[in-house]
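Supplementary Note 3. Input sequence used for the single-chain structure prediction.
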Amino acid sequence: MAAYKKLKQQDHYTTTYVAHKKYQIDASEHTAYGVETYLGVSGSGEWLSSTSTKQLPGTDFEHYSRLVYNSIHHLYYSGYNDKGLPSSNVNELSGSAYENYLQSSYTEYQRLAQSKFTVISIPQAHFGTNIKPGSVRLEPGIIGSGSNYLFDSSDASGNFISESYNEEVDTMYGASEVLEDGDYVFDEENYINETESEFVIHADDEWKTTLVDDGNGNLILSASSPQRIIGNVIYSHGLIIITNPSVGTYYQNYFSGSLTWNASHPIYTYNYHCEVKESDFNFSQNPSTTTGSDGVIADNITGSYFTPYFTTVGLYNDTNELVAVAKMAQPIPTSDNNDTTILVKLDM
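The predicted structure, written as discrete structure tokens, is reproduced below.
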């Protein structure tokens, strides 16, 4: 049986906290999660659809590479010059073209657009309000058991296919010259061997090729020293942007590893204080408490030690529809000497 009591406005309030859900997906799972990779290529002159290059033609993710480049550049890189330094109006709040959705208050060398963007887009359903800063990780995979290479591909006969460039990690990290701020962009040929040959990175250097974000919106090579920025993460938009054309080409065409990130989801907790005063609900509505057709109270409940118990609290809306049920761990006796308050919490 049930008894009802109307809650007042002061009997409920709402609190919130942020929960982080971890995702780790392989390259083969990108489609299942709706994670897509887009290519942006810079261009000059008038843009015409009839003469512009399409990527992924005939699919739901068909796009023009030049339009992708222009959009990404306008939103995130237009406030920076060709040296990676903020222009004079980068801190003006007059529009997104100047704000560029910066992920930290530090602006030096935060954004530098090159000739290509490789954009990995995560659906909002899988990143919530934003990607948790510091949680992004792109790990390349090893093709084939016992392979001497991290990045390579083969044809149907198992023969290695030569890719468009060669990036040797030993050259990158074993260079005699010392990287200074900005050198990772302008004098890259001093540290990386990029030739028109196969794409080779030795397997024992796998840990050096992992891409991570630094928590401030920068995508970096995890083991680079000094820190080598090769892109950016726009946490609030679920975008991973690789600005380095060499690294981006691999993730555009040959990526076979895993992508990890943490989604941020706000959880709203609705708190309801259900107060039972000492004079409330002190008589049972169970039919077994009466005898006879006249509803005479049974002898076993007329004593002063009798008290009803409750096991469930239900919450109803204004149209008397049951919307939530809270079950007690054990039956709770009502008190005829003190007020009792049951706190019901609903997480949504």
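Residues 92-97, 143-208 have pLDDT under 50 and may be disordered. The first strand starts at residue 12 and ends at 26.
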